[in-house]
Automatic annotation (TrEMBL):
GO cellular component assignments: adherens junction; catenin complex
Alphabetical list of CDD domains matching this protein: Cadherin_repeat
Recorded topology in the membrane: Single-pass type I membrane protein
One biological process term in Gene Ontology: cell-cell junction assembly
Transmembrane segments: 539-560
Residue span(s) of domain Cadherin: 3-83, 84-192, 193-307, 308-412, 412-529
Protein name per the record: Cadherin-11
Length: 716
């Protein structure tokens, strides 16, 4: 930089400011020359804006206004091309035409595209020929060979180079890898690896059982490799079927019907395998199917016997004699050995044992007479077993119909009871009867009704057959009287239409009743005419009821009189043990202070007032009577006991009268010691209990128990 006013005497100083001033760019303050202190990178910064000014060296006074200028960094080819990705992946269908676009790769150059050829790129292929090519200007990769087969080679690795300087010598370059995969198309038909398949199946196999598998190989994958199997020909088309297992791509041959080794020992099938999805572009490569022959041999199996019929129906007349043949079943061994058969009846189906079967020929006979009215059909099962192979058996149902025989006479359909009015007119119908027959309809109706020959001229009633399995009973005369006869029994003969016919005599009960003028029933009691001669039924019932009430009152009065209260005190002639209540808890004597409050007996002088019981909950509070206080120490035990008895008798919370209270206090200065017999019962005590005679009448029983021991010994 140079100022016009600079005369060269050194009085002007140049200063520089702006982007990179003093760091990247420095200025000689005397000459104004600007220098770069380090290497510049256009790709980092393409230009710098600086400001220069001339000032007085001594005073730093600006001599000129500041001048702004731009420093541009001129580009050189110092950056190689770079692709957007280090690796590319692309797919293209197999057998694509030449020139089919696969993928476009793009590289970039950081150099200035406007200056020279530093950023002008050219693409080329380094690896992947002759299968693929790349367009030099666009980077589009295309197929270079026709009919590339995925089944031959599926994956290709291609290396693409991008070079700047238009691809000329000295240019910089960069590369990338492209992995190209051929996708599958249905260009291959399925093929069986062999022309004939051999299979075998047992004749005992059941329908639906798998016989074997076939598989046609198709090198295509996915839906292009799907294969469907079918049977298109062969003598076993009706006996076998084939399904496709899409997981394994196999054809599964299954049994469709039961086989019989003795009838046919082998079958042949023609199986076809065809692609499910066919690409029309490659239809010329077809046909996309293949066929194979499947030969199936039937293996002999030990089969159970087979009945000639799936079921049997026989008939036998009821009441047939024992041993009557009902019918015959027949079974045979389907095997070549043709073993002999034995027959038997499943007794679970013939619990009453009505039938028996001949084990050799299968004839079924009756054991006892059959009654159709009891069981009309017998359903039994018959077993057939090979003699030498007991485990091989067959079972067939046999239905036996019991044919009806006219062995039941008809009877009244109900328990009829007829009523006829005293004022009934001659030929008046008063009841219609019908019959019932247990036999089948062929041996039942039509029923014929008639009167027995001996009373066919009955003067009171007559019978009319209505010819519809009913009959009407009519009055033959007028003027019935209950006082003379209130009940008539009319025998009626009923015959059925069977061969030979059966008949029975049934008795119809007819009561004579009183009716009004319209024929409405009033009363059928014969005593209604003699009610005025004595008491009515209602009066008799009332009298009987009064007598019963009086008897009940007398019984209650006698029962109450016999009741009496239990004595409060045990009399001498009673046994004390009968009035003792036994408790489960056993006290510990004078040292037991838990079960009972014995403080009163242990210290009679220190008690004032009433001590409630602990073993029961009193219904209300009892206040002790004045004057009934515990006796002083000098009082005799007899008086002390009397005081306690009076308190107990007047205490509503006290135990019942038939109980006994336990006292732990036995009096001061008692010469008797403890009254308990628990200890003395276990030892042979020789104590003298005669002093108990002096304790008064209340201890007489105790004195008799203990004081008279010597007397008992002398008596014995």
């Amino acid at each position: 930089l140079h100022s016009d006013i600079d005369s060269g005497d050194g009085n002007i100083k140049y200063i520089l400011s702006g982007e990179g001033a003093g760091i990247i760019f420095v200025i000689d303050d005397k000459s104004g020359n600007i220098h770069a202190t380090k290497t510049l990178d256009r790709e980092e910064r393409a230009q710098y804006t600086l400001t220069a000014q001339a000032v007085d060296r001594n005073t730093n006074r600006p001599l000129e206004p500041p001048s702004e200028f731009i420093v541009k960094v001129q580009d050189i080819n110092d950056n190689p091309p770079e692709f957007l990705h280090e690796n590319y992946h692309a797919n293209v269908p197999e057998r694509s035409n030449v020139g089919t676009s696969v993928i476009q790769v793009t590289a970039s150059d950081a150099d200035d595209p406007t200056y020279g050829n530093s950023a002008k790129l050219v693409y080329s292929i380094l690896e992947g020929q002759p299968y693929f090519s790349v367009e030099a200007q666009t980077g589009i990769i295309r197929t270079a060979l026709p009919n590339m087969d995925r089944e031959a080679k599926e994956e290709y690795h291609v290396v693409i180079q991008a070079k700047d300087m238009g691809g000329h010598m000295g240019g910089l370059s960069g590369t990338t890898k492209v992995t190209i995969t051929l996708t599958d198309v249905n260009d291959n038909p399925p093929k069986f690896p062999q022309s004939v398949y051999q299979m075998s199946v047992s004749e005992a196999a059941v329908p639906g059982e798998e016989v074997g598998r076939v598989k046609a190989k198709d090198p295509d994958i996915g839906e292009n490799g799907l294969v469907a199997y079918s049977i298109i020909d062969g003598d076993g088309m009706d006996m076998f079927e084939i399904t496709t297992d899409y997981e394994t791509q196999e054809g599964v041959v299954k049994l469709k019907k039961l086989l019989d080794f003795e009838t046919k020992k082998s079958y042949s099938l023609k199986v076809e395998a065809a692609n499910v999805h066919i690409d029309p572009k490659f239809i010329s490569n077809g046909p996309f199917k293949d066929t194979v022959t499947v030969k199936i041999s039937v293996e002999d199996a030990d089969e159970p016997p087979v009945f000639l019929k799936p079921s049997y129906i026989f008939e036998v007349q009821e009441n047939a004699a024992s041993g009557t043949v009902v019918g015959k079943v027949h079974a045979k061994d389907p095997d070549a050995a043709n073993s002999a058969i034995r027959y038997s009846i499943d007794r679970h189906t013939d619990l009453e044992r009505y039938f028996i079967i001949n084990a050799e020929d299968g004839n079924i006979k009756t054991i006892k007479a059959l009654d159709r009215e009891e069981i009309a059909w017998h359903n039994i099962s018959v077993f057939a077993v090979e003699i030498h192979k007991q485990h091989q058996e067959a079972k067939v149902p046999v239905a036996i119909k019991v044919v009806d025989v006219n062995d039941n006479a008809p009877k009244f359909a109900a328990a009829y009871e007829a009523f006829v009015c005293e004022n009934a007119r001659s030929n008046q119908q008063f009841i219609t009867i019908s019959a019932d027959d247990k036999d089948d309809s062929a041996n039942g109706p039509r029923f014929i009704f008639s009167l027995p020959p001996e009373i066919i001229h009955n003067p009171n009633f007559t019978l009319r057959d209505n010819r519809d399995n009913t009959a009407s009973v009519l009055v033959r005369r007028e003027g019935f009287s209950r006082q003379k006869q209130d009940l008539y029994l009319l025998p009626i003969v009923i015959s059925d239409g069977g061969l030979p016919p059966m008949s029975s005599t049934n008795t119809l009960t007819i009561r004579v009743c009183g009716c009004d003028s319209n024929g409405s029933l009033l009363s059928c009691n014969a005593e209604a005419y003699i009610l005025n001669a004595g008491l009515s039924t209602g009066a008799l019932i009332a009298i009987l009821a009064c007598i019963v009430i009086l008897l009940v009152i007398v019984v209650l009065f006698v029962t109450l009189k016999r009741q009496k209260k239990e004595p409060l005190i045990v009399f001498e002639e009673e046994d004390v043990r009968e009035n003792i209540i036994t408790y489960d808890d056993e006290g510990g004597g004078e040292e037991d202070t838990e079960a009972f409050d014995i403080a009163t007996l242990q210290n009679p002088d220190g008690i004032n007032g009433f001590i409630p019981r602990k073993d029961i909950k009193p219904e209300y509070q009892y206040m002790p009577r004045p004057g009934l206080r515990p006796a002083p120490n000098s009082v005799d035990v007899d008086d002390f006991i009397n005081t306690r008895i009076q308190e107990a008798d007047n205490d509503p919370t006290a135990p019942p009268y038939d109980s006994i209270q336990i006292y732990g206090y036995e009096g001061r200065g008692s010469v008797a010691g403890s009254l308990s017999s628990l200890e003395s019962a276990t030892t042979d005590s020789d104590l003298d209990y005669d002093y108990l005679q002096n304790w008064g009448p209340r201890f007489k029983k105790l004195a008799d128990l203990y004081g008279s021991k010597d007397t008992f010994d002398d008596d014995s």
